[in-house]
Amino acid sequence: MALDVRPLHPLFAGEVGAIDLRRVDDRPTLDAIRAAMDRHGVLVFRDQPFSDADQLAFARRFDGKLHSKTGAAILGKSRLGDEALTDISNVDETGGILRADDRRRAYGLGNRLWHTDASFQDPPGRYSMLHARIVPPVAADTEFADMRAAYDDLRPETKAQIEGLRAHHSIAYSRQTLGFEWSAAEQERLKGAVHPLVRINPRTGRRSLYLASHASRIIDWPVPEGRLLLRDLIEHATQSRFVYRHSWRVGDLVIWDNLATMHRGRPFDDTKHRRELRRVTTLDVA
Question: Contact at 8 Å (CB) between 136 and 276?
């Protein structure tokens, strides 16, 4: 099946024409979506009336095993009842907006850093699928950076320098940069994972930078030099020419490839306006 995809950015990201993903369960259509992901890195599907069960079921049909060892799970049991369904919201169990000093809100602020989902796990996250249930009446956008185009734009000597390098990714580290405090027991459960700085799409052969705010250091490099290199690469990869900004509508499902992109949430007054998004992330396994 051929998908109707309208480009949203000169380099990547596309909006798919009318399709009800709840009813997509045939291999040709799923393969067409995967091929479109290889091309665009980010796909927007409008007007998807997903329930939680619908979203989980589609993610499993599309790419199999789901990420459930989230950092948020360390803070307490999810109000959604399934750890594979990540709550990207600013509300508590009763539906009330989280207080400004709530620890869950402080943890959630880390989503405003440029990051790659589940890079702190091995295997890491592959496809993330974020669904909008309630959106505020003000801009509360999400930005995506094309890490393939960012890699292509590097100088040859930089490509040679980073080839073969590996970085340690830790969600405890990224939250600590914002002043978030973990207990010793929590940190013991969040040891992180090591991944290459350059990853290759096994189907297309295309290289991409693999970065995140979770990247704490480069293995076998002195910490200061390694962190400076990581900072410089993220600064390069998030130039405006590599970035698509998505404005949410209720019913949007946005799928992105964590192998090809990095993303961040943009700030809004989350102590005043309610927002509810649900994310499911698949694991990068064969």
Answer: no
Distance from chain centroid for Cα 196: 17
Asked, as a colleague might, if the bond just before 137 is cis with ω within 30 of 0, I would say: no
Residue 1 pLDDT exceeds 70: no
Question: Angle 112-48-245 (CA atoms, 0-180°, nearest 5)?
Answer: 30
Which residues, other chains included, contact 40 with Cβ-Cβ below 8 Å and sequence gap of 6+? 5, 7, 12, 13, 14
Mean pLDDT, range 224-235, rounded to an integer: 97
Whether pLDDT at 7 is above 90: yes
What pLDDT is attached to residue 197?
98
Of 205, 224, 226, which is closest to residue 215 (Cα–Cα)? 226
**pLDDT score recorded for residue 155:** 98
Dihedral sign (CA 53, 92, 78, 257) = positive
Report the candidate in 262, 265, 283, 260 with the shortest Cα–Cα distance to residue 118.
283
* Token digits of residue 167: 């970085």
First to last CA, the chain: 23
* Rounded Cα–Cα distance for residues 269 and 138 (Å): 8
Amino acid 131: pLDDT: 98
Specify the CATH architecture of the domain 5-283.
Answer: 4-Layer Sandwich (3.60)
CA–CA separation, 29 and 25 (whole Å): 8
- Quick one: which H or E segment has residue 264? strand 261-265
Look-up of token digits 């994972």:
193
Assign 166 to helix, strand or coil. Answer: strand
**Single-letter code of the amino acid located at 46:** R
d(C-alpha 114, C-alpha 263), whole Å: 5
Read off the pLDDT of residues 250-286 as tens digits, 9 standing for 90 and up: 999 999 999 999 999 999 999 999 999 999 999 999 7
Q: Cα separation of 85 and 278, whole Å?
A: 6
Indicate whether 15 pLDDT > 70.
yes
